[in-house]
Amino acid sequence: MMLLISLILALIPMLGIVGIALYGSLTTVDGLFMALILLTIAGIFGLNALYELRKARLNHANPGRAAGKNGSRTDAAFAFPGALKQRGRVASVQFFESHVGQPNRSIVTLAESPSSFQTLVLDGDVRNALPLGQKVEVTMRKQNGLNVLLNVSYS
Q1: What is the value of pTM for the model shown?
Q2: What is the CATH number of domain 76-154?
Q3: Measured between alpha carbons, how far apart are the two ends of the chain, in Å?
């Protein structure tokens, strides 16, 4: 539907350019600038139509990557091959700045129950992504020996 709307909205400014050319005012300053503006509008809607067409082709070629009927996103572990998942309530997040040239790290403690804790060492500053007391599902992957945060699902 969006593809059809984008195509129609790309063709309307093109008709305006044809009208300007038929009037013979394409060689005036007003006609030239109006044609440039209409070409820009047509180009934007044309690129949007190409994007929608490409998205439809990708979704048709890989139906597992398409959004579900309720509009939900696909599972993060499916979208990121080799991803690791951890669940729990965020008990603490500590950020440590490293020396120049070394990656900064965050140490996150997840509590699955009052007596069982799990510690994660993540690359970068994740204090804003993991609020204290929030129940989360963290998706991460290993990159150069470090755990890189990919996705956080809150529940």
Answers
A1: 0.47
A2: 2.40.50
A3: 33
Domain boundaries, the chain: 2-65, 76-154
- Nearest CA to 132 out of 150, 98, 106 is that of 106
Q: Which residues have CB under 8 Å from 135's CB, separation 6+?
A: 87, 88, 89, 90, 154, 155
Q: In 3D, which of 82, 83, 155, 88 has the Cα closest to residue 118? A: 88
Q: Is 82 helix (H, G, I), strand (E, B) or coil?
A: coil
Average pLDDT of 81-91?
A: 86
Q: Specify whether the CB–CB gap between 7 and 44 falls below 8 A.
A: no
Q: Are 126 and 149 in contact (CB under 8 A)?
A: yes
Q: What is the tens place of the pLDDT at every residue in 57-75?
A: 887 776 655 444 444 444 5
